[in-house]
Amino acid sequence: MLLYILKRILYVLPVAIGVSIVCFLLVHITPGDPLTAVLPVDATLELQQQMRALYGFDKPLPVQYGLWIWRVVQGDLGASIATGRPVTSEVFNAVKNSLALAAAATLIGFVAGAGLGILAGYFRGGWVDRIASFVSVLGVSVPHYWLGMVLVIIFSVQLGWLPATGGGPQGSASRSWDWDYLRFLVLPAVTMSVIPMGIIARTVKALVGEILNQEFVHALAAKGLTERGVFRHVIKNAAPTAFAVMGLQLGYLLGGSILIETVFSWPGTGFLLNAAIFQRDLPLLQGSILVLALFFVFLNLTVDILQAAIDPRVQRA
Amino acid sequence: MSLSAAIGQTPSPSPVVDAAVVRSPGYWTGVLRRLSRDPVAMTALVVIVLLLLMAIFAPYIAPADPSKGSMLRRLKPIGFPGYPLGADELGRDMLSRLIHGGRLSLLMGVTPVPIAFVIGSLLGITAGYVGGLTNTLIMRTVDVFYAFPSVLLAVALSGALGAGLTNALVSLTLVFVPPIARVAESVTTQVRGLDYIDAARASGAKAGSIIRVHVLGNVLGPIFVYATSLVSVSMILASGLSFLGLGVRPPEPEWGLMLNTLRTAIYTQPMVAALPGVMIFITSIAFNMVSDGLRSAMDVKS
């Protein structure tokens, strides 16, 4: 097991370094100088040079990368060009909000998707199966930003049950976990949950179908185990993979929340990214993408290791 | 396949076509016959063809000029005289804009996938067939890009490159190359290990003809099926980029962009504001169903 963990970590490290290089280079594929956004149009050449030296843009790229990554490892992602505040704290505040949203969405999606998947796997070809396939196709085909708008139209504009946008009655700063705040979470979380719902339903259905066809299930039934007892075995065998898929989905939702967060003005990383892009705030852009991508990489690693811990067969694969 | 997952999960580790079936004559006729007996896939295919025709002949079909507005007729409801599907926030005919919008939306949504299919297959098949250091170099680079959630990578790239149609196309293509390359590599590695490749080599076939006849013939099918499942993701992502202001720029009609500019209209004309999304939804679901039909017609295990 220890060897497996070590192997996985050794495999992930180069990927993480590669990810940091891509994030670093992002700033350099932008047309024009990273500083053009902040400098006044009539800035003297001398001032331009000064600023370039201040941000280190006058050094060769590998040196710049080395300096940048050294500070990143120490937890310093630089300062936002637009606000001057440290990027690290801006990103982590946003990550908290995004994580709350993504976790809620994953939970809803998992419960609904697993329920549908189990039913569909048990009653293959039946009407539950057809509904489940339909839901999976809908879930993966719907433009979720549009679904968000439609839900806002129905539940906020027409019915007035839930707030349309925002992170809470007094902004997101003083979050508490009562209904006053949670009602702001409902619509974005439900919108977002459609994505994992379809995927988890599909996965669980395939898993249950596969397990039901295995000999040990017939053996269990043959030795006289009740239907419920067999069911418990099926669930136990399907669980590790289902949870792994759920873990990965959390990472996707966190990284891919920008569209939904924009629709609902949810104060998370997507919202931050949006601001960074349109204010051409490159340190902020670079920092938030790096944090999100690395989070995703390490979430993958964790899921792999947990899966191997639960199911030793994974290690050999 | 989904937005996140299609590109996301370890993409179906072993989508290998039954090797015996592939080389038998009439394999493709068999696929087409099975596909034509799939009512869902055929309906979806008809929808796609109609959408394409609509986009191609937009200027002849659209009842009005999509860019001609009227300050007096802003945000009119569906069925308003002279505006069958209402008017948008600048008083432009929604029906005409939806018809014209299909041109850019389909162009942006569909094009990245075939380009990525070519690049990704090339990389993946090379890596899988040559193996060794070449494989390591290509696949580890692919892994780095694969490590980004797809939406994040698309937004990051087009955010850095700047808004615009070309930049959005480049970003989307780059998003789809890694997953296709991974599938291509895994299928090629499997095929390369099969006995008939050894047999071909033993009988004196050159590397070029082995790749052309024996590898490509067996490998392109599964990669193609996987690529078709990405078209619907690409549609959603492409319109999503325009929705964020990173793709097509106003006043050009494009479904994602229209959805964005109509966002504030949800309080006054909710039905009109939701229309562009319906078009994206229909397109994306149609591509998904054709892809699913193709998958089962070609008997590719997912």
UniProtKB/TrEMBL annotation, chain A:
CDD domains per the UniProt record, alphabetical: TM_PBP2 (cd06261)
UniProt entry tagged with the keyword Transferase: no
Membrane topology type: Multi-pass membrane protein
Subcellular location: Cell membrane
Keyword presence, Transferase: no
UniProt entry keywords in alphabetical sequence: Cell membrane, Membrane, Transmembrane, Transmembrane helix, Transport
GO cellular component labels: plasma membrane
InterPro entries xref list: BPD_transp_1_N, MetI-like, MetI-like_sf
Major subcellular location class: membrane
TM ranges: 9-29, 99-123, 135-161, 181-201, 242-264, 284-306
MF annotations from Gene Ontology: dipeptide transmembrane transporter activity
Domain ABC transmembrane type-1: 95-307
Family note: Belongs to the binding-protein-dependent transport system permease family.
Name of the protein: ABC transporter permease
Native source organism of the sequence: Alsobacter metallidurans
TrEMBL record, chain B:
Keywords of this entry: Cell membrane, Membrane, Transmembrane, Transmembrane helix, Transport
Pfam families the record matches: BPD_transp_1, OppC_N
Principal location class: membrane
Gene3D superfamilies according to UniProt: MetI-like
Entry's Gene Ontology BP terms: transmembrane transport
Top-level taxon in the UniProt lineage: Bacteria
This protein's record includes keyword Transport: yes
InterPro entries reported for this sequence: BP-dependent_transpt_permease, MetI-like, MetI-like_sf, OppC_N
GO cellular component, as recorded: plasma membrane
Domain ABC transmembrane type-1 span(s) in chain numbering: 102-291
Annotated membrane topology: Multi-pass membrane protein
Transmembrane residue ranges: 43-62, 104-131, 151-177, 223-246, 266-290
Compartments, as annotated in UniProt: Cell membrane
Family of this protein: Belongs to the binding-protein-dependent transport system permease family.
Protein name (Swiss-Prot/TrEMBL): ABC transporter permease
Lineage summary: Bacteria, Pseudomonadati, Pseudomonadota, Alphaproteobacteria, Hyphomicrobiales
